[in-house]
From TrEMBL:
Gene3D superfamilies (UniProt xref): NAD(P)-binding Rossmann-like Domain
SUPFAM superfamilies from the UniProt entry: NAD(P)-binding Rossmann-fold domains
PANTHER family attached to this UniProt entry: ALCOHOL DEHYDROGENASE (PTHR42901)
Keyword field: NADP, Oxidoreductase
Keyword NADP: yes
Protein name (Swiss-Prot/TrEMBL): NAD(P)-binding protein
Domain of life of the organism encoding this protein: Eukaryota
Matches recorded under InterPro entries: KR_dom, NAD(P)-bd_dom_sf, Sc_DH/Rdtase_CS, SDR_fam
UniProt-listed Pfam families: adh_short
One term of GO molecular function: oxidoreductase activity, acting on the CH-OH group of donors, NAD or NADP as acceptor
């Protein structure tokens, strides 16, 4: 895209944001549109991502005469066409959004989760998204009910994946959760064991299973979902913070172990994201979960999915080792401004 086109795109978004009073949207657009790919790349290979209320569509379908605002981000995804992506914890939230966005980019997707019915809904949505995108290639989606905390289930996973999807190019270790806000001395053994079994041991087991084939093929990308909690601990989250610190340490060690290979290792570290996550933390209490996000605009699942796909779509010599993403009004797990939503 020429510089004059980029200026026009940003100006349009800026004016639209001012009219709507969405200063946060304007800031986001200015930052994200810096990711535009230079000229020389076929426009059909761009992915335009709009907010969750809109849809992801091929850039060629965007009309310059349209009165609607330009997409918030455009980036090249041709490297993802026909790649096979495996995503854990894909029945909702970040995992589901990531599966749909990869499908739109022309990837084949294998999605795993414990909830079979919800997983099937994501499979259908991903297939529909690929069809809607018009991208030629990819689009195969397979859903497999699996609990990553169950070692036997993980060990037998490859036998359950369709034969033409067993060579995994990109592993997204997304499965994870937090139970409760109890302090040390009040935390149940079952909660401790469950969080470590999924957040840490499950992630390691999936990586151990698939990294062997990646090494044999001398190619691959492992993307682990960390958290701001893996950078800074907070009161009432000791076990969850410990699991995410473990993920960060494991990811760093893995990257160093694979430094002499083309296999990339990345960690996405989100701050406050409004998904089912907080509902699970408060054991199904939706009202308590909603209070977590009062007074500010949190991230959403699509924001993080966007970062995951962005990291995966970079050239082979580029590894986004850490992507730390916060809402504009959050500075740390315990510091945020709640003066009103943007």
């Amino acid at each position: 895209m020429r510089s004059d086109q980029l200026r026009l795109l940003l100006a349009s978004k800026f004016v639209h944001g001012l009219r709507k009073g969405r200063v946060g949207d304007v800031r986001s657009a200015v930052n994200r549109n810096r990711r535009l790919i230079p000229g020389g790349v076929p426009s059909d290979n761009y992915l335009s991502y709009r907010p969750p209320s809109a849809s992801v569509i091929p850039r060629r379908a965007l009309s310059s005469s349209s009165s609607s605002p330009p997409p918030s981000m455009v980036f090249n995804t041709s490297r993802l066409i026909n790649k096979t992506v495996l995503i854990t914890g894909a029945s909702a939230g970040i995992g589901a959004a990531t599966a749909i966005l990869f499908a739109k980019a022309g990837s084949n997707v294998v999605i795993l989760a414990r909830r079979a019915e919800a997983l099937k809904a994501v499979e259908d949505a991903a297939k529909a998204a690929h069809k809607e995108s018009g991208v030629q290639g990819g689009g195969k989606v397979a859903s497999i009910q699996l609990d990553v905390s169950d070692k036997a289930q993980v060990a037998s996973l490859l036998d359950k994946i369709p034969a033409d999807l067993r060579s995994i190019d990109i592993l997204v270790n997304n499965a994870g959760f937090v139970y409760g806000v109890e302090r040390v001395g009040q935390i149940s053994d079952s909660d401790i064991e469950s969080m470590f079994a999924t957040n840490v041991f499950g992630l390691i087991a999936m990586t151990q299973l698939l990294v062997k084939d990646m090494k044999a093929r001398n190619a691959g990308h492992i993307i682990n979902l960390g958290s701001v909690a893996g950078r800074e601990p907070y009161v009432g989250g000791s076990i969850y913070c410990a699991t995410k610190h473990a993920v960060r340490a494991f990811t760093g060690s893995l990257m160093r172990e694979l430094v002499d290979t083309p296999i990339r290792v990345s960690e996405i570290q989100p701050g406050m994201v409004e998904t089912e996550f907080s509902v699970v933390r408060f054991r199904g209490d939706k009202s308590a979960a909603d209070k977590v996000y009062e007074g500010l605009t949190p991230l959403n699942a699509e924001d993080i999915a966007e970062e995951i796909v962005w990291a995966a779509s970079r050239p082979p010599h580029v590894n986004l080792a850490e992507v730390f993403v916060l809402p504009t009004n959050q500075a740390s797990p315990t510091i945020s401004y709640r003066g009103g939503k943007m």
